[in-house]
Write a structure and sequence with these properties.
This protein is 36% helix and 20% strand. By secondary structure, the protein is an alpha/beta fold. A 6-stranded mixed beta sheet has the order 2-1-3-5-6-4. The protein has a 6-stranded parallel beta sheet with strand order 9-8-7-10-11-12, sandwiched between helices. The protein binds NADP nicotinamide-adenine-dinucleotide phosphate. NADP nicotinamide-adenine-dinucleotide phosphate binds at residues 63, 102, 105, 124-129, 148-150, 153, 182-185, 187, 211-213, 234, 237-238, 241.
Length: 272
């Protein structure tokens, strides 16, 4: 039987994962299919039983299941343990394991800038912020700080990772080598056209990484560029976390340029 792969989340909306992974299967000549499996939280237990019964080869996990799937697994990778969340299920020696490729998705685009990253501010304190903190620690950034609308959550996240936090209102009071946006501000839908950073607050900022990838060009990235600051788009994170998943499941490293073009063309065609 051809291998079965897919993504679970609720609601799943317009996930680009099926596009990327089905392209990967096609271009590498591998049999199998990657599907979208919208799964309500109350149906997670039944879904996880099905993963084992059907030996589903690979699962991408997104909101709201990234932590909820953990009790159903036989083990976690070191990265998933550190983040405290899972975005990838895979089999290893008969065991159903959880990994977190969101970290690789943030580390890879930042790696070329590593020497310049003395300080970093993470905006937001949800799941993506946890991956960002783990990634920045892996990159060896000396000073990492968290700012979040709900300050108590910033403080809790900072404590988990041994970092500092600042108030949301005070986030732009000093310059940072890197700002990482992990809030949905700027995302297509209700937040499009908004930014988590003041347009006149880029003095001394070295690099801005917006994890939002739809649209590719957010207000934050537009403002940063206008101020002469280098930028990284969330599309790069989405691409890298997806390529890492594909390699875990199949052992095949997909061609990055082709995958980027595929996603870019799709996002532009759908108004992203
Ligand atoms: P999450 O766990 O729901 O966390 C969302 C965070 O954003 C929370 O800290 C929340 O603050 C903050 N926030 C929400 N609305 C806000 C607003 N109006 N003003 C200020 N802060 C606000 O979500 P997540 O999983 O971390 O994902 C967050 C974003 O990351 C997604 O929207 C997506 O764009 C991006 N992402 C991108 C990729 C990729 O591959 N590029 C992967 C994962 C996520 P409170 O604590 O105050 O509610």
């Amino acid at each position: 039987m051809p291998a079965s792969y897919g993504i679970i989340g609720w609601p799943l909306g317009h996930s680009k994962s099926p596009l990327l992974h089905n392209w990967g299967l096609r271009t590498s000549g591998l049999p199998g299919k990657y599907e979208a499996w919208p799964t309500e939280p109350k149906k997670l237990k039944a879904f996880m039983a099905e993963v084992r019964a059907r030996r589903i080869k690979g699962v991408s996990v997104t909101i709201p299941h990234k932590q909820a799937v953990m009790p159903y697994l036989d083990g976690l990778t070191e990265r998933a343990t550190r983040v405290g969340a899972v975005n990838t299920l895979f089999w290893a020696e008969g065991k159903l394991m959880g990994d977190n490729t969101d970290v690789a998705g943030i580390v890879a685009p930042l790696a070329p800038y590593k020497e310049r990253l003395q300080s970093a501010l993470v905006l937001g304190a949800g799941g993506a912020a946890r991956a960002a903190c783990a990634a920045l620690q892996e990159l060896g950034v000396a000073e990492i700080c968290v700012a979040n609308r709900t300050e108590a959550k910033a403080q809790a996240l900072a404590k988990d990772f041994g970092l500092a936090s600042v108030s949301w209102e005070g986030r732009a009071a000093r310059p940072w080598s890197l700002i990482v946006n992990t809030t949905p501000l700027g995302m297509k839908g209700e937040h499009q056209g908004t930014s988590p950073w003041p347009a006149n607050g880029f003095e001394g900022v070295g690099l801005v990484f917006d994890l939002v990838y739809n649209p590719v060009r957010t207000v934050l990235l537009g403002d940063a560029k206008k101020a002469g600051v280098e930028v990284l788009s969330g599309l790069q994170m989405f691409l890298q976390q997806g390529l890492a998943q594909f390699e875990i499941w199949t052992g095949v490293a997909l061609e990055e340029k082709g995958a980027r073009q595929l996603l870019m063309m799709d996002l532009l065609a759908t108004g992203g």
